[in-house]
Design goal:
Order of helices and strands: HHHHHHHHHHHHHHHH
Distance between the termini: 21 Å
Helix content: over 70%
Largest sheet: none
Number of domains: 1
Structural class: mainly alpha
């Protein structure tokens, strides 16, 4: 590990951080493009198709709450133990994470497929055809959930080991597959919304296969031998649960509360639902790219926490805050000034463009706070303290639901919902940064004698 180019405990901090961050952010950008490709082609069918896929997409988003059990277990467990030089424990964490994700993926897929109509019914969609298409879309994409869950763990294993390049390359293959199949299935084969769902599943399966092959046979694989099916380590499973439960609860409630807000949106009609769907994908510039950078920071912090190199941890803290602030400013400017132009790529109706422009202008004001929230959360998770960011996120998201509902009853109408979402995000970001600064004062500021002895010049 110490001689590896993916060892994050040695060498120039910014250089090492970017080695991990750039491919992870690239992977997240590919994921965003993946989603926007669906929106682009479905948008040519009309707002009804976009609204249908958007409603079903909420349950794809909800699935991430359970997918993170394995993903975070792999990222934190692998990074901390490789940083400490314990390869055997790192491997056990990785294998236990695969076991958890496979089990959860199969259960979630079964529930989504069997109860697709009832799950879509939660949104109280007024148009019967939209509801029917959404149910069909959800039933089809359910097939891919087990592959997504386990494939995500494979990506977490590589990222935790400091090698995010392999997951990035694999994501590109999945994106290319989806981009080719979307127009073929939607229009050439006349499958419509169902075609978009089928293309998504096939793309996900391609990512899963390439990821599994890479973990097992790639020259850059983190472990010499890796068994996909092995007896889970109970102690490791318990530790993964302690790490991941707060994060999963946070994401579950975030998705559930967002679905509740979508229910507030539905009475305003299919155009409003389409704006919510497309707008959230455009806004994902922040939380996908920023989240990708945060994932890299978690791996960097995890390895250095395992090696007890606190000076590198706090230097990374400063660098990540600067980087995320700059990114937040850039996204805010893009959303505020170019929102209408971006929206017009997917939907052309004037009413929708007016709604979309307003939506993005309002959300532009919380992007910096969202970026800082991601940076702070990654530091906490890297040192194994996953509860603080989850507590803040849950509290902020619970607060925004009644706030959005109340503001929607005022003269603001639909815009009141977006204002409530923006205020909730701003409060979350500010609170978690304050908590992290207070926590930092109680943690070591300098390296342990052993870490200092092994330190190398940082240039």
């Amino acid at each position: 590990m110490n001689n590896s180019k993916y060892d994050l405990t040695r060498g120039p901090i910014l250089n090492r951080l970017l080695i991990v961050a750039i491919p992870v952010m690239g992977s997240q950008l590919m994921q965003m493009t993946y989603n926007l490709t669906d929106m682009f082609w479905l948008g040519k069918m009309g707002s009804e198709a976009v609204a249908a896929s958007g409603s079903a997409g909420m349950y794809m988003w909800l699935s991430m709450s359970f997918m993170l059990f394995g993903r975070m277990g792999a990222e934190i467990g692998v990074s901390q133990n490789l940083g400490a030089g314990d390869v055997a424990s790192a491997k056990k964490f990785a294998q236990s994470s695969v076991f958890i994700s496979a089990a959860l993926g199969i259960v979630y897929a079964a529930i989504s497929a069997i109860f697709s109509s009832r799950l879509i019914g939660f949104f109280n969609i007024q148009e019967a055809e939209v509801a029917k298409s959404a149910s069909e879309y959800l039933a089809i994409v359910s097939v891919g959930f087990p592959f997504v869950f386990v494939g995500s763990v494979f990506g977490g294993i590589f990222t935790g080991a400091g090698n995010s390049r392999v997951p990035f390359v694999i994501t590109v293959f999945g994106l290319i597959t989806n981009m080719i199949l979307d127009p073929l299935f939607i229009f050439t084969l006349d499958m419509g919304v169902a075609g978009a769902a089928a293309a998504t599943v096939i793309g996900q399966f391609v990512v899963f296969v390439f990821s599994a092959v890479s973990v097992k046979f790639s020259a850059e694989r983190p472990f010499e031998k890796f068994e996909f099916i092995s007896k889970p380590d109970i102690a490791k499973l318990k530790q993964i649960y302690r790490w991941s439960a707060p994060i999963c609860a946070e994401n579950f409630l975030f998705a559930l509360l967002t679905m509740t807000i979508t229910r507030f949106v539905s009475p305003f009609g299919e155009n409003a639902l389409s704006v919510s769907r497309v707008g959230s994908q455009i806004e994902s510039l922040t939380w996908l790219i920023g989240g990708g950078f945060a994932s890299a920071v978690t791996s960097f912090i995890g390895q250095n926490y395992g090696a007890k190199k606190w000076e590198r941890i706090w230097k990374c803290f400063k660098l990540s805050n600067i980087a995320m602030t700059v990114w937040g400013i850039c996204v805010s400017l893009i959303l505020f000034f170019l929102g209408r132009i971006i929206f017009s790529v997917f939907l052309q109706e004037k009413e929708i463009l007016d709604m979309g422009q307003t939506y993005l202008k309002i959300l532009a004001f919380c992007q910096i706070f969202m970026c800082l929230e991601g940076a702070a959360a990654s530091i906490f998770r890297g040192i194994g303290e996953t509860a603080p960011p989850s507590i803040v996120s849950i509290a902020g998201n619970v607060f925004r639901v009644p706030l959005s509902y109340f503001l929607a009853q005022t003269s603001l109408g639909l815009d009141g919902i977006w204002v409530g979402v923006t205020l909730g995000a701003a409060i979350r970001g500010a609170c978690i940064m304050v908590w992290l600064v207070m926590r930092k004062r109680k943690l070591p500021q300098t390296d342990t004698p052993e870490a200092a002895l092994n330190a190398q010049p940082e240039i």
